[in-house]
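Hey Z.,

So I finally got round to the S-adenosylmethionine thing we talked about over coffee. Here's the setup:
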Amino acid sequence: MNLADFETLQKILRSEGFSTKKSLGQNFLVDPTVCPAMAAAACDKNTGVLEIGPGAGVLTAELSDVAKRVVTIELDERLKPVLKKTLADKNNVEIIFGDAMKIDLAKLINEKFSDCDKVAVCANLPYYITSPIIMHLLESRLPIDNITVMVQKEAAQRLCAEVGSREAGAVTVAVNYYAKGEILFGVPSESFLPPPKVDSAVIKLSVRTSPEITLSDEKKFFSFVKACFAQRRKTLVNTVSSSMAVSKQLIKEALNASGLKETARSEELSMSELANVFEYIFKGEKNGN
Ligand code: SAM
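And the result:
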C-alpha cells in the first residue's frame, strides 16, 4: 500500500469516513520523496523512534522499515480504524492514543527503547504546537540523539538560525542551548492533503550531550533572553531595563565588560556573549549578595 500516493490515501480516509481537522494540524503527507528522506536522516536499524502524530501512518510505515522500533503518539482517536488498516503488517510499531504534551515521555522512552542504541524523535508536527513540543522535548532533557521534524518554513528558519544573526529570537537561543539545528530541505504546500497555506521544511536538531554554555541559573537566563528579544527594534539596554528590574547603568557596564557596544541589539550577541552579559548583571544574586 503506497500511503504517500494521493489517490490511495484519499480512498482509505474516505472508506473509514475520516475527514481531516484543521484545529489538530491534520495535513497529511502525499509526497513519496519526503518520508524516506526524513527516516534516513533520523534513524538506523538500531534506533528507537518516537513519532508524534502518525495521522494515517505514512511516515510511521517508513520509520518502521528503517528503525528498530517505532512508538507513535496520536491525539485523534478517530484515526484508530485508519491506522489499524495502514499499519497492519508493521510488527515493530506501537500506537499510543493520547496527548504528546501530557504523556510522561521519559518513562515511555525508558520502558520502550531500553534495548536500542539510540532514540530519535521524528514527526510531521502539528503546526499549532511546534515550538511548545520542541521546547518540551528539549527542556525535559530526554535521552534523545536527534529531533528530525517537519515544521512551517518560517519556524524552521527561526529555530535553526545562528544566534547572533537577524533571524535569531528567544526560541533560537533556547534551541541552541540544547541542540545544534540545521534545515535539511524545503517541502512545498502541494506535498500535503489538504495543502496548508504555508510552505514547510524538515529540520534536524542534534541534541548536545552537554549545553554549549555554562550558566549559574538556567531559568533566570531564559527570562533574561525573553526580555532581550521582547522588543526587537530596541537596544539590549532599553529592552532589558524595561522588562526586568535592572538599571541601564548596570547593563551598560555588563556590555562594556564583555567588549560590546552600549548600543548593541540582542540579535548581534553570540551565545557566549549573551551568557557573559547575563552573568555580569545577575552575579551574586543566587547566593543572596
Ligand atoms: N504523520 C502524518 C503525516 O505526515 O501525514 C500526520 C501529520 S499531521 C501534520 C499532525 C498529526 O498530529 C495529526 O495526525 C494530528 O491528529 C496529530 N496531533 C495533533 N496534536 C497532537 C498532540 N497533542 N499529540 C499527539 N498527536 C497530535
